[in-house]
Amino acid sequence: MKTNKQNADFLHIGKKLTKWYDTNARQLPWRENQLPYNIWISEIVLQQTQVKQGLGHYLRFIERFPTVKELHQASEDEVLLYWKGLGYYSRAINLHKAAHQVVEDFGGEFPNHYNDILKLKGVGKYTAAAIASICFDEKVPAVDGNFYRVLSRIFADDFDISSSKAFQHFSDLALLVMPDEKPGEFNQAIMDIGAEICRPKNPLCMFCPVNEDCIAFQTGRISEFPVKTKKVKVSDLSLKYFFVKYQNQFLIKQRGNDFIWKKLYEFPTSIPENWNEYIINSKTVNHKLTHKNLSIEINTAEIDSRKDFENFAKEFDFSIVNTNQADEKSFPKPLQDFYESVY
Ligand code: SF4
Fold it and tell me: Where is the HhH-GPD domain (predicted)?
């Protein structure tokens, strides 16, 4: 089968997928008007986030920043605040930078070609293809994990999806199936089928519009695809914080632009030695990031002198906040959970 792919006609598969999409598409708010700005925000929200969890965040974000102009005019801090709860905050920082690019490099008009969309900060090949195909009818497959899974099963294709060449391989395969007409519907059909029917486990093949064409289904080999050999390398990392409080106030500082949790707020990572006597409690929380298992020790130091508290904040450039003020900032989830549990 694999050797004859280039010569065979698989377009009927793509046509079945787009036909299925016409009547089965998920009703999603960004699909109502297919504006590039809305599609872009939805795609960035949905990276690493399921539709169910991302929907409310998307609506809140779009309500506050309805067009690229409002996003461009907002402060980075406010954009981060509206990203709160979604994690992977570098996505929000990049959205904000890209809004500046749209205004400064494209005269405020969202770019309307795949190659130009790809120039935007934080926009990869998948997102650029999704926007270009859905909004501008450009024939580019939006290849992501859904494509890998669905196409590898349809063709019983054992190409290793952890290989650096997988993207190109499945893009070529997608182009064999993708019709010239309605490229956006084709891409969205695979997004929907991948999410709801051709699921990683227990796919609902009985409801799949291409089950007659699917070699893995026809030969009972679905569990063999996609093939993935390499596992993500995860390392351990220990962090130590001091939750320095005076009555209902505590100290925070914004992180820099390097390493994890870029631009988010955190607690002090050290205190004067003679403040160790103020430590009233110590707690360790575990938190998983994609490539790191974090063990975070948080020591609560309750300071009884307002003067010492304020001098320390001033000397080391910390902001003094209460919980209401902290709610206006974005923290890494384990730190946010911690201060919410204290007050
Ligand atoms: S028939 Fe089953 S395995 Fe094949 S594409 Fe459809 S849902 Fe996936």
Answer: 45-196
Ligand 1 centroid – CA 196 distance (Å):
11
Answer yes or no: is pLDDT of 258 > 80.
Answer: no
The reply to whether ligand 1 has any atom less than 6 angstroms from the CB of 154 is yes
Residue 87's pLDDT band (cuts 50, 70, 90): confident
Return the closest-CA partner of residue 188 out of 6, 8, 46, 37: 46
* pTM confidence score: 0.82
Residue-range domains of the chain with CATH:
2-224 (1.10.340.30), 235-342 (3.90.79.10)
pLDDT at residue 2, as a whole number: 46
Res 3 pLDDT > 50: no
183 lines ligand 1 (CB under 6 A): no
- Helices marked H in the chain: 11-24, 36-45, 51-64, 68-73, 76-81, 90-105, 114-117, 125-136, 145-154, 166-177, 183-196, 215-218, 306-315, 323-326, 333-342
Instruction: Give the residue numbers marked as catalytic.
Output: 43
197 lines ligand 1 (CB under 6 A): yes
Q: What is the pLDDT of residues 157-167, one digit of tens each?
A: 999 999 999 99
User: Rounded to the nearest whole angstrom, what is the distance from the C-alpha of residue 160 to the centroid of ligand 1?
Assistant: 18
